[in-house]
Amino acid sequence: xxxEKRMCYSLLExxxxxxxxxxxEICRYLRSSHTEYKExxxxxxxxxxxxxxxxxxxxxxxxxxxxxxEHKAFAKCQNxxxxxxxxERINLYVRGQSDCYAWLKRINAI
Length: 110
What we know:
- By secondary structure, this protein is mainly α.
- The protein has four helices and no strands.
- Helix 1 (2-33) packs across helix 4 (68-106).
């Protein structure tokens, strides 16, 4: 039992240490291989290029006011970003499930 707990903590520590790398791998995969994600990224980049004020707004510059068109573009950016985040979370979840299965196999739990 003590050995099993030590192995579990060791795994958690390794996963925490690797999380940024795993997240980066997933984002690189989505950017290179996921059509919908690439389309959303292109749309987001287009909006940031067409409306540079959005970048200033996101980066927190004070004293910014938006026109109705800029506000609509900003809202669209937010919606796109939420959709991209959802795809990233789904892929992280799937990766976690895959890693969990591999770990359970390794410790002969399944």
